[in-house]
């Protein structure tokens, strides 16, 4: 048979994880798997939430509505958009990556822009869909390009904030001002921020402000903010009716709706007292240990400070000034920054991305063994 090859390569991060797991099993030694991108401080306790779901209901046992359960879309409207949008602007998709891919499919693009340090899947999705890619150093550069009409409606810009891989967070006022300027010039902005709600409260109004902008598409996942990576569920928001109509068609023929149990689970987490409590407890424990791990890196000179000028290191990722090979000597899994940029350099090879979302005491057990410029013997 003849294969229609995408020419995209398999994820290097997945390969690193498989290698580390094999080494751990062969040596019989514990490894700290910070190469992964999931919250692992704790799991979300779903015991009471699941007890309240009727698995025999038709909501679970029939095909779900193509655009998603109306109750869930309304709950998302209230929770993420403070009621200041319409449920008709929201479509349920099978996770963040699915949402990004569907978005790129729906847009007629020449070029997709993303940050200088970026999640590799952005480039691979673009390649599969036949879209050229470019990178930007900062949002000011993008706004200037838009003002000079060097980027236009045939261009889309991906903004990931807090950033993957650096975990750097821009000031919200600057972020919103820049996106408004891009919107005014007809540049499509894909706002992909799956880490924001790990750290922000339910009163966060950024999404409700972005929802008013004509050329902004929000892709969101419940994997990070609720610890539901295994459920593969997220949503897309756009006020553009033509985009939503095409998206609805592609959801139908791509997945025929999203898993009804996952939808019901997220609905319960967003709308019931026991669900909200489970989410709050998960986020609080996760935030606490991420912050402790980040402070340890900063106090011991392990954070790659040059990547955080004018930005706040937040997480769930951070970049450290150790190579992937150096960390591996101490059984710490990481991913070289070579994998998060277009061109590998001496600088990128000297740095590694790690996930901070692991129990603080476990983090200390491994990192206290690392040689560092001024290692402190601290416990938080």
- Extract low-pLDDT stretches: 376-380
Rg, Cα atoms, Å: 21 Å
Indicate how many domains the architecture comprises: 2
Which architecture name of the largest domain does CATH use? 3-Layer(aba) Sandwich
Would you count the extended β strands for me?
14
Secondary structure: helix percent: 40-55%
Overall mean pLDDT stands at 93
- Morphology: globular
Largest sheet, spatial ordering of strands = 2-9-8-7-5-3-4
Number of helices: 16
**Class of secondary structure makeup:** alpha/beta
CATH names the topology of the largest domain as: Aspartate Aminotransferase, domain 2
Series of secondary-structure elements, N-terminal to C-terminal? HEHHHEHEHEHEEHEHHEEHHHEEHEEHEH
Question: Approximately how much beta-strand content do the residues carry?
Answer: 5-15%
Q: Could you tell me how far the N terminus lies from the C terminus, measured between alpha carbons in angstroms?
A: 59 Å
Largest β-sheet summary: 7 strands, mixed
The CATH C-level class name of the largest domain: Alpha Beta
Per CATH, the superfamily of the largest domain is: Type I PLP-dependent aspartate aminotransferase-like (Major domain)
């Amino acid at each position: 048979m003849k294969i229609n090859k995408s020419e995209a390569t398999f994820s290097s991060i997945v390969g690193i994880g498989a290698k580390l797991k094999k080494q751990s099993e062969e040596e019989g030694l514990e490894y700290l798997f910070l190469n992964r991108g999931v919250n692992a401080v704790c799991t979300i306790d779903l015991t009471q939430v699941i007890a309240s779901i009727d698995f025999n209901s038709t909501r679970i046992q029939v095909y779900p509505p193509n655009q998603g359960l109306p109750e869930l879309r309304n709950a998302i409207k209230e929770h993420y958009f403070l009621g200041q949008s319409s449920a008709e602007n929201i479509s349920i998709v099978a996770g963040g990556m699915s949402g990004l891919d569907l978005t790129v499919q729906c847009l007629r693009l020449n070029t997709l822009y993303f940050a200088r340090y970026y999640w590799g899947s952005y480039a691979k999705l673009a390649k599969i869909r036949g879209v050229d890619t470019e990178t930007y150093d900062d949002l000011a550069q993008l706004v200037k390009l838009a003002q000079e009409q060097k980027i236009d409606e045939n261009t889309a810009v991906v903004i990931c904030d807090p950033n993957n891989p650096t975990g750097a967070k821009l000031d919200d006022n600057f972020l919103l001002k820049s996106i408004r300027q891009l919107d005014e010039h007809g540049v499509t902005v894909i706002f992909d921020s799956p880490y924001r709600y790990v750290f922000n409260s339910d009163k966060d109004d950024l999404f409700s402000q972005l929802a008013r902008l004509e050329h902004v598409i929000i892709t969101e996942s419940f994997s990070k903010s609720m610890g539901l990576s295994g459920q593969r569920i997220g949503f897309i928001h756009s006020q553009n009716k033509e985009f939503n109509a095409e998206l609805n068609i592609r959801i139908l023929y791509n997945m025929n709706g999203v898993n009804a149990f996952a939808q019901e689970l997220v609905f319960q987490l967003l709308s019931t007292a026991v669900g909200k409590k489970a989410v709050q407890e998960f986020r609080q424990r996760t935030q606490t240990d991420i912050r402790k791990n980040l402070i340890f890196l900063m106090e011991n000179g392990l954070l790659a400070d040059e990547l955080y000028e004018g930005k706040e290191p937040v997480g769930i990722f951070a970049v450290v000034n150790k190579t992937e090979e150096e960390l591996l000597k101490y059984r710490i899994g990481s991913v070289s920054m070579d994998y998060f940029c277009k061109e590998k350099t001496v600088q990128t090879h000297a740095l590694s991305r790690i996930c901070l979302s692991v129990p603080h005491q476990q983090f200390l057990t491994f990192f206290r063994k690392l040689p560092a410029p001024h290692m402190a013997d601290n416990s938080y």
